[in-house]
Write a structure and sequence with these properties.
It is built from nine helices and no strands. The chain is mostly helical.
Length: 202
């Protein structure tokens, strides 16, 4: 074994100063997004708000776009792999997680402004697309597992089903300004399963 290559060696430890400065930068970016608008969340403004030098920020992120991608990911609640053993169970977990995220969270509060800015800014649109697709993939993977288990026919339109699952929840939050509760989530999941002709029992 090469000397110093074992677990816990200094070269493999994360520098806590780096973690602290990155956290300070992201916290400042979140605050600026809350207080101002997306277009004013510049590296210069973040440096001033956070007290972290621009040169340090650019050591952590090669560009403003890379920083903003991390900011959007930081705002969006994580959606890890979901595998309950049934499509009904998987869709239920995914939909309830999304509904909670659309409640009183930093992401939910920032979402209207981000969506508005994305219509006018190609850079932000790319960032939102990247983050959104990663979360859509979790649901698409659940559909693929259901196909392998024989729950779902091969010709089922899973892209449409994913939209049908998320669309009503976003509508409640963004248009009606009424975050979806558990009862709404259950009805949405049941409707998607009905469209797919899948048993509602997990």
């Amino acid at each position: 074994m090469t000397q110093g290559a074992g677990p816990g060696c200094a070269g493999e430890r994360a520098d806590p100063r780096i973690s602290r400065s990155k956290a300070a930068v992201l916290a400042a970016a979140r605050q600026l997004l809350h207080d101002r608008c997306f277009f004013e969340v510049t590296v210069e403004a973040i440096a001033e708000e956070s007290g972290v030098a621009k040169t340090t920020i650019y050591r952590h992120w090669p560009s403003r776009e890379a920083l903003l991608l991390d900011l959007v990911d930081d705002l969006m609640p994580p959606l890890g792999t979901i595998d309950t053993g049934s499509l009904a169970g998987d869709l239920g977990v995914a939909a309830h997680q999304l509904a909670r995220a659309l409640g009183d969270t930093s992401w939910s509060q920032a979402l209207p402004g981000l969506l508005d800015a994305a219509q006018r800014d190609a850079q932000l649109r790319r960032i939102m697309d990247i983050s959104g697709q990663a979360r859509r993939q979790v649901v698409l993977d659940a559909f693929e597992r259901a196909r392998r288990r024989g729950e779902l026919p091969a010709e089922a339109d899973t892209e449409l089903a994913t939209t049908l699952l998320a669309g009503p929840l976003f509508y409640r939050r963004l248009v009606l300004r009424d975050p979806p509760g558990p009862d709404v989530v259950e009805r949405v999941v049941a409707a998607v399963l009905l469209v797919l002709d899948v048993e509602a029992q997990p």
